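Minutes, project check-in
Item: structure for the 52-residue chain
Input as provided by the requester:
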Amino acid sequence: MAKYICDVCGYEYDPVVGDPDNGIAAGTAFEDLPEDWTCPLCGVGKDQFSQE
């Protein structure tokens, strides 16, 4: 699974790890994140991420 980088702050979403602090289980693909998921560091939406 591909990693995605926040274009604003550089946060890396790694689907192998997920986002456990925000209820996203390990193994969750970026495409499967809820539409209202936001960057845990700066708060921007999924549309501000680029595939690594």
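Outcome recorded: The beta strands are 4-6, 12-13, 49-51.
No further action items on this chain.
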